[in-house]
Write a structure and sequence with these properties.
Order of helices and strands: HHHHHHHH
Largest sheet: none
Number of domains: 1
Helix content: 55-70%
Number of strands: 0
Strand content: under 5%
Length: about 150
């Protein structure tokens, strides 16, 4: 979808809008438990210590993988978005729902007795920003529209 509102520099050689840099940052934010899981697996012996440090309750760790699934899928199919247009269009809404879940998760844990911490507050602020950005960024929204030749 070419739109004269976007400069030519934001299009790739195939005429598709390039995904904004913040999109990749949001994917990392949403898949933070997946990133931690990979880091723990890579560190082998220190992996259990790393997981216990960030997730003392192992049930929260396994549940934490669920909201990252749309981000992992978006990462995997981002290079093939023109071949899977329906799936790609749905991914944006999946990312929005996952971001909303992540935004509500931390305050819910605080209400259940977890202590208020700096990293927790920071994650809530980042989650709120990411949700607003996913909902309002025109270029990102245009990236999820079907590509017209």
């Amino acid at each position: 979808m070419k739109n004269i509102d976007f400069p030519l520099s934001v299009y790739d050689p195939h005429g598709r809008l390039k995904l904004p840099f913040l999109f990749w940052c949001v994917l990392l934010l949403q898949a933070r438990t997946w990133v931690l899981f990979v880091m723990a697996a890579a560190s082998r012996q220190q992996g259990d210590t790393l997981l216990t440090l960030f997730y003392p309750d192992h049930d929260n760790f396994w549940l934490g993988l669920l909201p990252g699934i749309p981000a992992v899928i978006a990462f995997l199919i981002s290079g093939r978005r023109d071949k899977l247009p329906r799936c790609w269009a749905l991914i944006r809404w999946g990312l929005i729902v996952a971001q909303l879940i992540l935004l509500l998760w931390q305050p819910l844990l605080w209400l259940q007795g977890d202590e208020l911490s700096g990293p927790g507050v920071t994650l809530v602020v980042l989650d709120a920003f990411a949700l607003c950005w996913l909902l309002t960024n025109r270029r990102l929204r245009a990236c999820f529209l079907p590509h017209e030749d």
